[in-house]
Amino acid sequence: MTSQGGAVSLGEFGRIERFFRPLAVGVPGAFDLTDDAAVLDVPHDQQLVVTTDAMVSGVHFLPNDNPADLAWKILAVNMSDLAAKGAEPLAYSLVTSLPKSIGDDWVEAFAKGLGEAQRAFKVNLLGGDTVSTSGPLSLTITALGLVPRNRMIRRKGAKLGDALFVTGSIGDAALGLKLAQGALTQPVPEADRAYLLSRLRRPAPRLDLVASLRVFGTAALDISDGLVADLRHMALTSKVRLVLDVQSVPLSGPALRLLVGAPTLRRTILTGGDDYEVAFTAPADKAEDIAAAGQNAGIAVTRIGKVIDGEPGLDILGLDGAETDLGPGGWRHF
Ligand SMILES: Nc1ncnc2c1ncn2[C@@H]1O[C@H](COP(=O)(O)OP(=O)(O)O)[C@@H](O)[C@H]1O
Ligand SMILES: Cc1ncc(C[n+]2csc(CCOP(=O)(O)OP(=O)(O)O)c2C)c(N)n1
Ligand SMILES: [Mg+2]
Ligand SMILES: [Mg+2]
Ligand SMILES: [Mg+2]
């Protein structure tokens, strides 16, 4: 225990033991977080899927965001990449880079939120690293998943004759971010405000759809940078021309209500990002089976476009059905 600015701190190893060890009990090869590394078995007929995403204060979240929400989001965004690949979560590692001003109470609340997220996504902590930083708080997770051998769904694989689908609803988190930043001038009913903020802070990775995605999906990715930007990633990687029909993009009630008074927010919805929904292509004649699979999983799946003949890229059909250009759009770090 050390004293820090008057408050008593458990210190690096005390924090690991008290707050993080309980999150690793489900992984025998994590050895209660007492060794240099962890060890995992991979069934011989499956493959390990590996993904990493980081979140940095001021870039991915606001400096005063609640630690339990941050824990949920850093695990959820990594689970979302696994879901988009058709992978079942196996385990994850965590790097916390914390300013020295962060106290035990913050870490305790963070670990509690992480425990809640772990239970929701059925995954356990494998290990990680704890470092201090003179810069902004940052969190990094590397998530491991399993797929049957050679069955990971790629961004590449979309084909002529495929339809384009998306899960859930689009744009809620980008509107939630505008709310959190105080950047919306119109009045928003309290229930709508709570919904949009929760979509920003507690994304729902579409893990319950992974088995069906592996059956029907020809290409898939999760939407983090924005629907338009990420569909363009898929089109270019698959070397196909995709058409996005803006009229069909699924919107939540709160998003629709906001659009009534502020139609220019549609651009925010289509390009804002932080959706963590899955976009995928599948043969058009499988649309009914896909709808049934969505119903079974309790996840809305909406057809929003198709693959057409043409140069690799994305066509966007606006509300009037005519081609429109939303510019490069989408989130870019640099
Ligand atoms: N610093 C890096 N070192 C190595 N690979 C990276 C780095 N940053 C991104 N990548 C790779 O670039 C690709 C695109 O990354 P990214 O856009 O972050 O994917 P996603 O949006 O699905 O999280 C991925 O294959 C990722 O592994
Ligand atoms: C304070 C704040 N500013 C901006 C955003 C919006 N935002 C930041 S990063 C990002 C894109 C996703 O992050 P990235 O690191 O590119 O994730 P990846 O594509 O690698 O999954 C978005 C939409 C936010 N969530 N919070
Ligand atoms: Mg990434
Ligand atoms: Mg990602
Ligand atoms: Mg992704």
From TrEMBL:
Keyword line: ATP-binding, Kinase, Magnesium, Metal-binding, Nucleotide-binding, Plasmid, Thiamine biosynthesis, Transferase
Q: Where are the transmembrane segments?
A: none
Q: Where does Mg(2+) 3 bind?
A: D36, D81, D222
Binding annotation for substrate: H60, D274, W331
Which residues does the annotation say bind Mg(2+) 4? Answer: D36, T51, D81
GO biological process assignments: thiamine biosynthetic process; thiamine diphosphate biosynthetic process
Q: What is its EC number?
A: 2.7.4.16
Where along the chain is Mg(2+) 5 bound?
A: D225
Which is one Pfam family of this protein? AIRS
What is a single molecular function from GO for this protein? magnesium ion binding
Say which domain of life the source belongs to. Bacteria
Gene3D superfamilies assigned to the protein according to its UniProt record, in alphabetical order: PurM-like C-terminal domain, PurM-like, N-terminal domain
Per UniProt, Mg(2+) 1 binds at T52, D53, D129
Q: What class of enzyme is it?
A: transferase
Keyword Metal-binding present in the record's keywords: the answer is: yes
What protein family is recorded?
Belongs to the thiamine-monophosphate kinase family.
> What's this chain's function?
Catalyzes the ATP-dependent phosphorylation of thiamine-monophosphate (TMP) to form thiamine-pyrophosphate (TPP), the active form of vitamin B1.
Extra info from the record? Reaction mechanism of ThiL seems to utilize a direct, inline transfer of the gamma-phosphate of ATP to TMP rather than a phosphorylated enzyme intermediate.
The name of this protein is Thiamine-monophosphate kinase
